[in-house]
Amino acid sequence: MTEVLRRWLAAGGIRTATARDAVLAGVVAAASVALVLGIEQLAVSEAGSAFGAGPGAVVVTAPERAAVVAVLVAQSACLVLRRRDPVTCLALTVLGQVALLAVLPAYLSFQAPATLVAAYSVGAYAPRRRGLVAAAVAAVVQALLLFALGGGGLLGTSGAAYAAQASSALVNALLTYLGAALVGEYVATRRSLLAELRDRVRRAERERAALAAQAVLEERGRMARELHDVAAHHLSGIVVQAAAAERLVDRDPERAKESMRRIRSQGRETLDNLRLVVGLLRGPGDTEAAPQPTLADVPGLLADARAAGADVQDQTRGDPCALAPSTQLTVYRVLQEALSNARRHGTGRRVEVLLDYREPGLVLHVRNAAPAAERGPVPGPASHGIVGMTERATMVGGTLTAGPRPDGAWYVRLAVPRSPRAVHHATGGTVLPAAPEEPGVAPSPTTEERP
Question: Which residues form a coiled coil (predicted)?
Fold first, then answer.
């Protein structure tokens, strides 16, 4: 209802709170004048009957009536201050009420509506304790001034009758002002609760939108890592095989055909993996049922690297332990990326792969020699491959270090924790007895990838 009134007033050009209060003051003034004139007519007829006057007897004179109307209009005009300074507004309306009782005939008693609106405004817009105190003080002041003036039906009484009527007037004033102030308090509290609820809803919507955006970014990052790992590994192998086939097509057609078959096989595998990732992007209904790689697929990964022409030596130290599927996928993808980098940047050079289970978890070491021109740290920002490997390691609680060593070799070290809930998989390769790791220079902490 309040919102409808505000829209109507806004349509009429009344948009500010002060302007709305001015309209309210005018409505209250008109209602007050109409009420007091109606009460006057009733009082005149009753007074005429009591004093034996005729029906047309005039008890209230025109100057008295004009004074009452002027006081009511001035009192209602004070309501313009009810939001900006509600306590002052209440004080002015109380003074107007006292003036009204002074100009009214002795047998008339009228509580102007402006005092009720002012008391309500004190409860609604002033601080809680201050508003209630102001309402109580206003009631007491009005009752005391009424006693002093002897108005409101108190004139001509004395003794016990006067005390009873004075007490009744005080109680009525307290009930009137405090009741209106408490109603204002209730409305203000309800308004505050509604505003707080709306604010909570808005905050919850913003938080939900932020969480959704964060989830989208994380999922996009995960998909980007999967696409990079799949494309970088298989396409780099295809490029190497294609270059070898081009060199052998005239000298050794059979070996060239074998390279082409390897290219076709890797191309199919790449398409299968890309279909899996695209299915995840489309939704659960479009996802193809393809298992994620585990440590059991590491021998096949090493075999593919050897078939592509890489000189790979792999070792396993310690007893293979149980690892979570997500951890196994991380180890597989990091090894895949490291082999792809070795194939791109160190073609024809030996790659050493070590899976070490002697640590609290699993430590993967990948090392391959680098050309002399590439020795030392490489300046520039970290590549997407190194960033993706680092993010994968962080997601499973592991750490990754990658960079060149002083002897010119490129080194990748991944350490991941154990998980007792994981399913055990053997990794293949040459299993060596547990022994201290060979001494060497610690890898550089840089995370730059070779160009």
Answer: 187-214
Q: Which two tokens mark 250?
A: 């005239």
Looking up tokens 């060593």, which residue turns up? 405
Q: Determine how many CB atoms are found less than 10 A away from the CB of residue 270.
A: 17
CA 334 vs CA 240, 283, 298, 412, 432: distances in Å? 20, 26, 11, 9, 22
User: Of 162, 184, 203, which closes a domain?
Assistant: 203
Please check whether residue 100 lies inside any domain of the structure.
Answer: yes
Cut 0.70: pTM above it: no
Q: What would the DSSP string read from start to end of 170-189?
A: HHHHHHHHHHHHHHHHHHHH
Domain edge (last residue) among 203, 230, 265: 203
Cα(75)–Cα(92) distance, rounded to whole angstroms? 7
Q: What is the pLDDT of residues 21-33, one digit of tens each?
A: 899 999 999 999 9
| Number of domains the chain contains | 2
CATH code, 332: 3.30.565.10
Looking at the fold, whether 187 and 317 belong to one and the same domain comes out as no
Residue 237, in any domain of the structure = no
Tokens 């009005």: give the residue. Answer: 142
Q: Residue 409 belongs to what domain range?
A: 295-451
pLDDT digits (tens, 9 = 90+) for 306-320: 877 788 899 998 888
Residues 6+ positions from 128 with CB-CB distance below 8 Å: 185
> What kind and span of H or E run contains 432?
strand 430-432
Rounded-to-integer distance, Cα 54 and Cα 236, Å: 118
CA 331, CA 323: separation in Å to the nearest integer? Answer: 10
DSSP string, 39-83: HHHHHHHHHHHHHT--TT---S-HHHHHHHHHHHHHHHHGGGGTT
